[in-house]
Design goal:
CATH superfamily of the largest domain: Spore Coat Polysaccharide Biosynthesis Protein SpsA, Chain A
Largest sheet: 10 strands, mixed
Number of domains: 3
Radius of gyration: 29 Å
Helix content: 25-40%
Distance between the termini: 73 Å
CATH class of the largest domain: Alpha Beta
Number of strands: 25
Length: 690
């Protein structure tokens, strides 16, 4: 049985050897997910045991390789932090390469369970130890991690997911911070003379410029990930740089020479006690090799370095020197793609801008930061600006407008607020007004149903607003051919382009006979959705329930009001917001879209079809979506028709299967990423040809 270890927890082990009374003060509050413990009394310290029992994984996805030379408390602290977050990450193994330590490292490691320990017969140094660990690794990816580090929540998933989000990723590094919370490195810049900068050192790590994923010259070997196959094909870490320094920079350059990229991933936050392993004096010890190996590196890569700027010149541009086109998108709020169709469309559109070679920046009109959704955008390389680092969008446009090639203003109220400033201060940009849907058309249809005179007036004012913005913009974007016709009828002189919803078909294996019940999905901040489901519950569901008493109506969507919640029953299940809709769609038989008014393209129909779930909808719901009734979708005008069509598809396997397949085909033909990419290229063509 593994004996418990006589080591203090993270706070006290490092505090004790460093004597830093303010250590982790900011990190506890802002970054690390665990709470600061109360200091134990002196009598408790001697029995404060922390056994670490890692579970061995036979087929790990990632091999975490930790070279360690002495500093046993740091090594234990590093391992303890990994242990605390072990359930957040994909399957991994830990390999500690004990580089002939002469302190208590060996004794400490012998008491740990579930890790692989390799003990060098002589002191070989960091580079050789990394290569030794790589040769013993079983994982598809190798993660090299200094022993004087502390990992934080979500670190491993963030690093691994970068390879999925960026197909050209060859190496990924983390955001490094000092124990006092200051930034240590947000990726590295290598200058023309071969010298290197840790970008952002000693600054606030939460600033927007340090918080989005981007391609970089290199990332510190303190924490880097590379595929095992690439690592061995590239020849491992170059032993010419032994015992340490510049091997990580050289590896990143070899990755880039192989037509891949090194990426900096800010959502992987690592606390690094810089200088613990090798000191800080560059005139002696291992640290002196930082100077010696600089010259080796320069001689190896001096031809490549000719395209780099001189030392210290325009670091804000040099940090991403390959960026030549920039797009700024301003929307009403932080995008929440799992909450509403508009957010999903814009989130996907941002990625298409990136694919077309644009550095893509995003600002919410609220200038807010969201711990989940802002970080989600930053993880895939979207630069997000937010308070308190941004206090005025107008001021941002005035200061940086000349750098943008595209400015996209989403929704009428947002566009009205910023279009004049954008036209004045963005001389190199094409100004796009993205309607999302024609608000005046939706509001007019709502007024026609409610017969409300104030709503009629509001719709007319909305039309004036949208037409005024459209005349100022270089191009106006709508999501359906129907809306192009409406705008052209109102103002034939407008330049109007189509850029619809953007979706990807999802895999599903659940067959017809294993499915049941019907689904309504929609964000209830959007008035047409609440009107639609109330109409269905009052006028349609009673008739349906009479004929199919076991059938349930499942309702999912953000912000269901109390009035809607009051309809809940054993047969009307109101789930509210569901973070992962796939399990719902994998088992639902039909989706409904009983909209009585609206405009644009209906995300609820698109989403259902991506999962192969047939839809029964009103004519207004299917408008502008290139859907053929009876082939792609079932259409119903009255409560009686709705009931009839639901029962038809619910009971007829052949009809259900045909609708399911046709719906997926419609997505590929009209709403896929490739279709949207072609549409956006066409829209931007004028600006790019100037």
């Amino acid at each position: 049985m593994i004996k418990p270890l006589r080591y203090l927890s993270i706070s006290y082990s490092i505090l004790r050897i460093q004597g830093l009374s303010a250590l982790f003060k900011r990190i506890y509050r802002k970054i690390l997910p665990f709470k600061k413990p109360s200091p134990p009394d002196k009598t408790h310290l001697a029995t404060h045991y922390f056994p670490l029992n890692f579970v061995r994984v036979n087929d790990p996805e990632i091999s975490i390789i930790i070279p360690a030379y002495n500093k046993h408390l740091y090594t234990f602290t590093c391992l303890e932090s990994i242990y605390k977050h072990r359930n957040e990450a994909p399957g991994f193994e830990i390999i500690v390469v004990d580089d002939f330590s002469n302190d208590e490292t060996t004794q400490m490691l012998n008491q740990l369970a579930g890790i692989t320990v390799i003990r060098n017969s002589t002191h070989k140094g960091f580079i050789h130890s990394c290569n030794i660990g790589a040769n013993a690794a079983k994982g598809n990816y190798l993660l090299f991690l200094n022993n004087d580090t502390v990992v934080t929540r979500g670190w491993l998933n963030a690093l691994r997911n970068t390879f999925s989000d960026f197909p050209d990723a060859g190496l990924v590094g983390a955001k490094l911070i000092y124990p006092d919370g200051q930034l240590q490195e947000a990726g590295g810049i290598v200058w023309q003379d071969g010298s290197a900068w840790s970008y952002g050192r000693f600054d606030d790590p939460n600033k927007p410029e340090y918080s989005y994923c981007r391609a970089v010259d290199y990332c510190s070997g303190t924490c880097i990930v590379i595929s095992k196959q690439d690592f061995f094909e590239l020849g491992l870490m170059d032993v010419r740089y032994a015992p340490a320094y510049y091997a990580d920079t050289d590896l990143a350059f070899r990755v880039r020479a192989a037509n891949k990229q090194a990426y900096y991933q800010p959502n992987a936050v690592i606390v690094h006690f810089e200088g613990v392993s090798s000191g800080v004096d560059t005139t002696s010890g291992t640290k002196q090799y930082q100077v010696i190996n600089h010259d080796k590196f320069y001689q190896q890569w001096k031809e490549t370095l000719k395209s780099h700027r001189h030392n210290g010149e325009l670091p804000e541009l040099e940090k991403e020197r390959n960026i030549h086109k920039r797009a700024l998108i301003i929307d009403a709020r932080v995008l929440m793609p799992d909450n509403d169709s508009g957010s999903l469309r814009m989130f996907n559109l941002l990625q298409i801008f990136q694919k077309l070679g644009y550095k893509t920046s995003f600002i919410a009109n609220t200038i807010e930061y969201h711990d989940i959704y802002t970080r989600q955008m930053q993880a895939i390389g979207i630069e997000c600006f937010y308070f308190p680092y941004l206090k005025s969008i107008h001021e941002h446009i005035k200061k940086f407008g000349h750098t943008y090639n595209v400015v996209l203003l989403s929704r009428a109220d947002v566009a009205e607020k910023y279009i004049d400033t954008a036209k004045k201060f963005c001389p190199n940009a094409i100004i796009l007004f993205d309607t999302v849907d024609l608000h005046f058309l939706r509001e007019q249809r709502q007024a026609d149903i409610t017969k409300n005179k104030l709503s009629q007036v509001s719709a007319r004012l909305r039309k004036q607003q949208e037409l005024s913005i459209a005349r100022k913009a270089d191009k106006t974007i709508v999501v359906s051919p129907i809306e192009i016709e409406y705008l052209k009828a109102e103002a034939p002189d407008l330049s109007v382009e189509l850029l619809s919803n953007i979706h990807k078909n999802q895999e599903t294996v659940t067959h017809f006979h294993d499915r049941k019940d019907i689904l309504f999905i929609g964000n209830f901040e959007h008035p047409p959705n609440l009107d639609a489901i109330e109409y269905f519950i009052h006028d349609i569901f009673p008739k349906l329930h009479q004929q199919k008493p076991d059938l349930k109506l499942i309702i999912i969507g953000s912000d269901p009001p109390e009035k809607l919640l009051s309809y809940a029953s054993p047969f009307i299940i109101i789930k509210g917001f569901v973070p992962d809709i796939k399990p719902v769609f994998d088992h639902i038989k039909l989706s409904i879209a009983p909209l009585r008014y609206g405009a644009g393209v209906k995300g609820k129909i698109n989403t259902s079809m991506t999962y192969g779930v047939p839809v029964v909808a009103t004519p207004i719901a299917m408008e502008g979506m290139n859907l053929i009734p009876e082939q792609d979708i079932l259409i119903a005008d009255t409560p009686e028709d709705f009931t009839k069509q639901i029962i038809r598809a619910y009971d007829n396997e052949s009809l259900w299967t045909s609708l399911s397949e046709s719906g997926r085909i419609n997505i590929e033909k009209n709403f896929s990423f490739s279709i949207a990419e072609n549409q956006l290229q066409k829209i931007l063509q004028r600006n790019e040809n100037i």
